[in-house]
Every structure is written in C-alpha cells, then in structure tokens.
Amino acid sequence: MSQKRIALFGSTGSIGTQALDVIAANPDLFSAEVLTAQTNDTLLIKQALQFNPNIVVIGDEKKYPIVKEALAHTHTKVFAGEKALEEVASLDCYDMMLAAIVGYAGLKPTLCAIEIGKPIALANKETLVVAGDIIMRTAAEKRIPIIPVDSEHSAIFQCLVGEGRNRIEKIILTASGGPFLGKKPNFLVNVKKDHALQHPNWTMGAKITIDSATLMNKGLEMIEAKWLFNLTYDQVQVVVHPQSIIHSMVQFTDGSIKAQMGLPDMKLPIQYALAFPNRIHNDFPRYDFKKPGTLTFEEPDTKTFRNLALAMEAMKQGGNMPCILNAANEIAVYAFLRNRIGFLDMTEVVEQTMARIPFLPEPTLEEYFETDGEARNFAASLIHM
Ligand code: NDP
Ligand code: MG
Fold it and tell me: What domains, with CATH codes, occur in the chain?
C-alpha cells in the first residue's frame, strides 16, 4: 500500500484524536494532510506540530491569529471560518476524507469532498440523516466509496464484503441501551447532564453520548443504515445488546446471519475504513472467549425512549422529516447540555418540531438547508434560547 493522505475533518474530537493515533501507529501507510477544529486551537496547534499537515483550518475565526502565529515557523498553511472548511475540502491535495465533524456542520465539507471524487470514511452520521439521498447519489455518480466508521455500520459493511449482489433480508443493528437501560420515565425526568454523559461502554463526544442515552443515536443510525446499504424501513431492526461485543449483524435471503464482533474500541472501525480493503495489524486488546461472560439481547423500550420511535417515524416518512428530526435534536441536545431543559424535554422539542415544519417529500439540497434552518429556529423558540 502506498501512503494515503488523510484529510481529517474534526481532528480534535473523539473520533479525530483516535484517528490520529491510528495514523501515528502506521506512518508508512497514512499521513495527516489536513486537520480541522472548531474552537480547540490548543489541541489543533499541538496536532499540527506533531503531524506536519499541509493545511489546518480553525472554524472559529477569532482563533485564527493564535493558530497562525503558533505555526508561522512551519510549512503548514492556516485557514479559518466555515467557508474555508468547504474550500479546503474541495482541494485536490488528499486521498481520503475522514468526516469526523459532529452534527449538521459536517454536511457541506463532506459534500464538497464527494463532488471532487474523494473517497469518504464517514463518522458523521448526521450527514446521511439530513441528505442521505443526495449524498449517496452524488457518491455513486462520482464512483467513490462511502466507508462507514460508525461501529455498527462498519460491522455491516464488513459482513457484506464478498457477498456481491446476495440479497439482504434485514440488518440487525445492536444498541448498548446506554446508561439508562431499564429505566422508566419517572427516573429519566430527573436525569442531569453529568449522569447522562457517562456511557457504560464507549467514551465519545458530548453530543453522541447524549444521543446514546436517549436512544436517538440508534434512530439516527437506522436512517444512516438505510442510505448506506439501500434498505427499506422494514429491513432495519434494532436489538439491545448491552455488552457491545457484537457490533451488528446481517441476515441474508437464506436466513443465514453474519455478525462482526470485537471489544468496543472505535480505533478498529476507524483503522478499517482508512485501510480498506486491507486489514492491518494492531495491538489493541482482543475479546477473550475463555473469560466468563454472557452476551444478551433484548427489545428496545421505545415507549420509554421515545426518540427512537420518532426517528423510526421520520425514517418511514422520508423526505425532509429526518432533516427536521436531526435539526430539532441538535438544538435540544445542546440545550440539555447547557442545563436549559430536562432529559425528557428533548423528546418534546423533537416531536413538536416534526409536527410543525412543512413536510417535503422530495427536497432539493437547497430545501434541506432551508428545512434545517426553519427546524432549528422553531426548536429554539420552544426552549426560549
Ligand atoms: P466530538 O464532539 O468529540 O468532536 C467533534 C469535532 O468536530 C471536533 O474536532 C470539533 O472541533 C469539530 N466541530 C464541532 N463543531 C463544529 C462546527 N460547527 N464546524 C466545524 N467543526 C466542528 O465528536 P465525536 O468525535 O464524538 O463525533 C464526531 C462524529 O462522529 C459525530 O457525527 C458522531 O455521531 C460520529 N461518531 C462518533 C463516535 C464516537 O465514538 N465518538 C462513534 C460513531 C460515530 P472542536 O474540538 O474545536 O470543538
Ligand atoms: Mg454507532
């Protein structure tokens, strides 16, 4: 394999830093060509000094002078602002983008990369939730792969290798159930941010950790799976598997089920996406079948965790409904993280926004952008932000 130049969008996040660990462990295979952050100038500078990228982008323009000065003695070019993310994504200076920005903000740079024909390692699931039809269509036109980084989707992707056109009967997305598995609304109503931020199996960014606690994450992942693997609503099933050892499964037309397993560690799907189609050696801990332990499975409680039911509804309706769901959810999660609303209020915000914003069955890209803006404004008005 020749050295692959990676443009790491969201390099200072949980996925971004773990991706840099993978790159650091495999300097012959990968280099960090582009690094981007939103506000964390300190970490971005540190990463740039270690990895010597061609370009860094800091989203927050106020931080530009700090980053520029710190890297003045290096050959790294420094840009700032939202537009710069798109412009840099459109440059033909890298081989693969790792899309690891969180939320809707990741959509435009990722689309720019697809439009110039760059393969994508996709962590940012919101991109597919908002505009999955346009993303997948454009990627197909440009003949570039979208390789999932999300552990469940990486598992499905791995199960499908070698299956050619064999028909998928359904996919079974596993869910850990999050920190509040088995809890009921009378408990959830009092949940505070610090508790919700403690995930039993994974250490992740704040937004996805809250989404995991509300099960919205699994709903977003159902929609993500629909687009990645060209599935219908009925072909995606969620099963709660609290140990997070089976990362997901595919059931084929003959009833045979393939699963991908391993200890929960995001470095594995990150490394798989960067190195695909190759598998490369690592020293990550291995799952040990000799150790006592049980793998269990149960139905998700969609009556308590209504966000999952709302996401399923949005997926069924299609059009701009998942975009509305996503925008309202981003507003609700950030309000919860600022202690502005309670845990169960997040669901109310999403539900009311879905009921209010006009439904469009076949939106254009521009209409997705408008929907996102309208849904955010309405959701924020419910919270009095
Ligand atoms: P983090 O919050 O840890 O990191 C987000 C990254 O995006 C940071 O580099 C951050 O910069 C940057 N960023 C934040 N806001 C903006 C913005 N408005 N514009 C540009 N850049 C921005 O998130 P995670 O790494 O946890 O998640 C990233 C994506 O990957 C999400 O979509 C998530 O759903 C998905 N994912 C994550 C998993 C995980 O284990 N963490 C697992 C599966 C999927 P700064 O540091 O400066 O704020
Ligand atoms: Mg996941």
Answer: 4-148 (3.40.50.720), 153-317 (no CATH)
Nearest ligand to the CA of 269 is 1
Task: Tell me whether strands 246-252 and 168-175 are parallel, antiparallel or unpaired.
Answer: antiparallel
Mean pLDDT of 360-383: 98
Q: Are 181 and 242 in contact (CB under 8 A)?
A: yes
- For the cut 80, the answer to whether the pLDDT of residue 103 exceeds it is yes
pLDDT bin (cut points 50, 70, 90) of residue 1 is low
Cα-Cα-Cα-Cα dihedral sign, residues 115, 26, 286, 19:
negative
Ligand 2 centre to CA of 144 (Å) is 22
Sheet holding 96-99, edge to edge: 77-80, 55-58, 30-37, 4-9, 96-99, 120-122, 146-148
* Residue 173 scores a pLDDT above 70: yes
Ligand 1: centre distance to CA 14 (Å): 7
**Spacing, Cα 64 to ligand 2 middle (Å):** 33
Give distance in angstroms: CA of 54 to centre of ligand 2: 31
Predicted confidence at residue 203, as pLDDT, reads 85
DSSP 347-380: HHHHHHHHHHSPP-SS--HHHHHHHHHHHHHHHH
Tokens of 171: 């996919």
pLDDT at 45 over 90: yes
Answer yes or no: are the C-beta atoms of 85 and 9 closer than 8 Å: yes
DSSP letter at 96?
E
**Does ligand 1 lie within 6 Å of residue 59's CB atom?**
yes
Q: What is the pTM of this model?
A: 0.98
Q: Which amino acid is at 176?
A: S
Site to probe by mutation for ligand 1, drawn from 208, 211, 333 as the one with most ligand atoms within 8 Å of Cβ, is: 208
CA–CA–CA angle 296, 300, 303 (5° rounding):
150
